[in-house]
Amino acid sequence: MQHRSFIITLFLTIIGFNMKAQHQTNGGYAAVNGLQLYYEIHGSGSPLVLLHGGGSTIKSSFGRILPELAKAHQVIAVELQAHGHTLDIDRPLSFEQDADDVAALLQQLHIGKADFMGFSNGGTTCLQIGIRHPALVNKLVLLAAAYKRSGMPPGFFEGFENVTLAHMPAPLQAAYLEANPDPAGLQRMFERDVARMKGFKDISDAAIKTIQAPTLVINGDVEVILASQALELSRTLPHARLMILPADHGDYIGEAGAPDQSGKLVPLVTAVVLSFLQG
């Protein structure tokens, strides 16, 4: 019976994917930990927090799927330090600090528990929320989440040694400037994200094993996070399911910088995520 219910949910979500979502949007800025943190609220229902990837914005990471998610959830989408509408401040950029900022935002919004979905760097931040603020977490959805340096392809970290803003995907640059038309801010975000990735440190298996929330791990088979690491992460988390797709980085959510912009997997992945969150 549960299998039949899942198939029905999947079918209805896919065929309705292109229908216009009916939801209200509001948001603004919250003063958290010395930062003016930008957020948006879409739809109604159980809270779902969206955390974008590195060098990204709400729109560039989740613009394709957010309207569908907001049909079933109160979506709280955040732009983290130095990204999009949220300006940088003079403090280190870290996944731990991002996690603390999101927790402080939810406290201000009087949200005691939520689901969290993060893409790429946002997935790593979700892991830190699960570790540092477990009482806040209902379920986690991790899309291409890094947690060990060994989980990236050979040469990944060496590639940051001589990288410049010109190497940043043009759609992500455009998305930043749409949110904040300041080229100096774009350069600052780029430098911050590069420095963070160059200094990336493993999250220990012991820390991962403290996360008790049910978790869905999603990864492409040929993307920046190796599928083998997604498998390892799913086996290290106490309560995780795994979905490996024939896809590159962000193809399956319609991310603005994704190599495949056809987005054919997007309705399927959205349906699976909604089914997991509602299960």
Automatic annotation (TrEMBL):
Q: Which residues form a coiled coil?
A: none
- Keyword vocabulary terms for this entry: Hydrolase
Domain called AB hydrolase-1: residue spans: 47-160
Record-level Gene Ontology MF annotations: hydrolase activity
Q: Name one Pfam family in it.
A: Abhydrolase_1
Hydrolase as a keyword of this entry, yes or no, is yes
What superkingdom heads the lineage? Bacteria
Matching entries from InterPro entries are given as: AB_hydrolase_1, AB_hydrolase_fold
Keyword Hydrolase listed: yes
* Protein name, per record: Alpha/beta hydrolase
